[in-house]
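Re: [help] complex structure
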Amino acid sequence: MGATVTTANNDEKTWGGGHNEPLGASYGKMMMWFFIVSDALTFSGFLGAYGFSRFKFIETWPLADEVFTHFPFMHGVPAPMYYVALMTFILIFSSVTMVLAVDAGHQMKKTKVAIYMFLTIIGGLIFVGSQAWEWKNFIKGEYGAVETTGGSLLQFVDEHGKRVALADFAVKLPEQREALTRSHSTWFMEDAQTQPSFTVAEVQAGFKAHPGLLIRSEKLDEHKKKIVLTRAESEAHLANAKYVVEGANLIRNEYGNKLFADFFFFITGFHGFHVFSGVIINIIIFFNVLLGTYEKRRSYEMVEKVGLYWHFVDLVWVFVFTVFYLV
Amino acid sequence: MSHEHVSNTKRIWFVFGLLSLVTIVEVILGIYKPGALEFNHFIGLNLLNWIFYILTIFKAYYIVWAFMHMEGEKSSLRWSVVSPVIFLVLYLLFILLTEGHYIYGVFKDSTIKWNF
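Output below.
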């Protein structure tokens, strides 16, 4: 019995951990900190795994500034990093409004807390929307590529080293292509969903018809540029082509190493899920603020606790940004 | 909480300015990638990536200390939150990156061609 007795025994606030406050923080706040510690370790595990795979394929890893080049309303203009920088700003700014809400809460200014919480929610929604847009571009792809039987990825460039899209040179062959449907067979059903716009034969024929085209391999040279093969080498490599790859999915992607897309989806997806749940929690707290719950409680500590979570989401993004887009 | 709650709006905007500035510097470096930084290495990592990682840690410090108000907490809480993360992450990265580098060597020096 003695071991279970707490100093909070005679107190109404037993659920909240009483008044003994280890580490000088209230129960809820301390637990939020330790949740953040465990979540930080989870993200570290993911980013560490990304680093592991990247080190494994250090010579063939895709270049981020070739992958993320889109900016809204600037179609066709390569804008590496600008959009993700904007997203970072939005998230940092929503962190600022959150900390301003916490600050207003300390002064018991209900209206101010509500306004800042609202701005934080808007910032979070814009960020999640931006991430969805980024995913859309990533999944759709831009140029298309070809995968060989050995699993390496071949991209197409013209004689100046500029990327060329499959649609620009592949020819339409009069062959019958049939997507398997359930009425035919259930085997290889996934082929039906991922059937690319061109067959390997069409790409090969188009390549033959355009003598100026070359193939760019996944390998990086000492200046971190992808090595472009000679025409003879290109033809030899293209003969081994097995799949036409357009855009990205969890099996293969047109940017390069298969794991690149997997990690991108998984890590930014997991982070996006955190942002999304953060927005939901912020909305709940926002309504509590409006209803005057914390005014009655004489304490806006709840805003502080969700604030901790929200800043953590921002903190993780700082690392994801560096690891995926900068390094 | 024992510490008093004075409004520190000024500091919040200062930190925001600082974080924005660091992000702008990162993006500029990321776009131009100065060759002098990118192709000179220091302990197996090129100088550009060193800068990126240092700036990231710098930003993380300000987010945790200013925004999450770690500077106002007791040092016992500070240490019990920060030290497990730092040491476990360093350990994790050390094992994973060393092992990843080893596997890279295996692929490179042998005839294995196995993409997984």
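Chain A is about 55% helix and 5% strand.
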